[in-house]
Amino acid sequence: MSRNRLYTIVLLACAGGSLWLWIQNSRHLLAQNGETNACLIKTLTGVPCPSCGTTRSIFELFDGHVMSSLQWNPMGIMVLLIMVISPVWILLDLLLRKDSFLRCYSRAEKQLQSKWIAMPAMGLVVFNWVWNICKGL
Amino acid sequence: MELQKVDLFIMTNAKFFEAHHLGWIREQLIQMDDSKWPTLQMQQFKDPTTYLIVSLLGGSLGIDRFMLGDTGLGVGKLLTCGGLGIWAIIDWFMIMPAAREKNMALFQNVLSYA
Predict the structure, then answer these.
(1) What is the distance, to the nearest Å, from the Cα of residue A1 to the centroid of all Cα atoms in its chain?
(2) Quick one: DSSP state of residue A73?
(3) B54-79: per-residue pLDDT in tens?
(4) Confidence (pLDDT) at A35
(5) What is the pLDDT of residues A105-124, one digit of tens each?
(6) What is the pLDDT of residue A127?
(7) How far apart are CA B15 and CA A107, in angstroms?
(8) Distance CA B68, CA B79 (A)
(9) Is the pLDDT of residue A28 over 80?
(10) Helix, strand, or coil here: A11?
(11) Chain B residue numbers touching A75 (CB-CB < 8 A)
(12) Which of B72, B87, B89 sits opposite A109 (nearest CB)?
C-alpha cells in the first residue's frame, strides 16, 4: 500500500471515529439515551460483535473509569490509543516528509501475519466475542 | 510467447484482472520469455467473486481484508464494527477491484522476478 493511500485511509477513519464520538457525546449530554446501533452484525442478528461496546468503553475512559471501561470492552482502550496517536504521527510524518508510520504499519502487518502472533490474537478476539455475548451488549 | 498460449491464458484468467488491464497483460505475455510460463501457470490468483461473498458475510469482522493480506485494514475493520458498518458496505463494492489489484501485483511480480 502506498504512503499517501494509507495516510488518507487512517486519517479518514480517525475523523469518522471522532465525529461518531462527538455525535454520541452530544446525544449523551442531551440525555437522549436511546440505543444507537451502528453494528451490522448486531442489527441483522441481534448478537453483538467482538467490538460492540467500544464507544461506551471510550466514554467510561473519558470519565476516568478505567476498570469500567475494560468491562465494557477492552478494545476501547486500543481504539482510543490508535485514534489519538496515529493522526499526530501521520501529521508529523507529512510535515517532516518521512514515512515512519508506513514502515511501522508494514512491520506490524508482517508480524501479525505470523501464526505465532495471529493464533493467540484470534483467540483473544473470540474470547472477547464470547464475553460480549455473555454480557448481552 | 506463442499467441495461442497467450490467448488461452487470457481466456481462462480474464476474470482475475481488471478489463482495462487485459490489453497490457496480453502485450506483456507476447513479449515474455517462454521460461516464465510454468511459473505463471502455477500462480494461484485470488477469485474476486469469492472475496465478494466473504465480504458480504464477514465484512464487518474484516475477514475479507485478512484473506486478501491487508491485515492492518482487517484489524481496523474488526476494531470498529466494520467502520461503524460504513466501511463494511463500501468494501462490498471495493473488495473485487482490490482482489484484482492484488492479482495484478502478483502478475507483475512473476514478470519481473521469475
Answers:
(1) 21
(2) -
(3) 999 988 899 999 999 999 999 999 99
(4) 61
(5) 999 999 998 989 999 999 99
(6) 92
(7) 32
(8) 18
(9) no
(10) helix
(11) 79
(12) B72
pTM above 0.95, yes or no: no
> Which chain A residue's Cα is nearest to B58?
A41
Q: A47-50: which pairs have CB atoms within 8 A and are 24 or more residues apart?
A: A47/A133, A48/A129, A48/A132, A48/A133, A48/A135, A48/A136, A48/A137, A49/A129, A49/A132, A49/B60, A49/B61, A49/B81, A50/A75, A50/A125, A50/A126, A50/A128, A50/A129, A50/A132, A50/B61, A50/B78
Q: What whole-number distance in Å separates Cα of residue B87 and Cα of residue B83?
A: 5
Tally of CB atoms within 10 A around B21: 17
Closest residue, chain A, to B88 (C-alpha) = A40
Spatial distance between the Cα atoms of B96 and B80, rounded to a whole number of angstroms: 22
d(CA B111, CA B114): 6
Q: Closest CB to A51: pick one of B70, B72, B80.
A: B80
Amino acid at A7: Y
Rounded to two decimals, the ipTM of the complex is 0.85
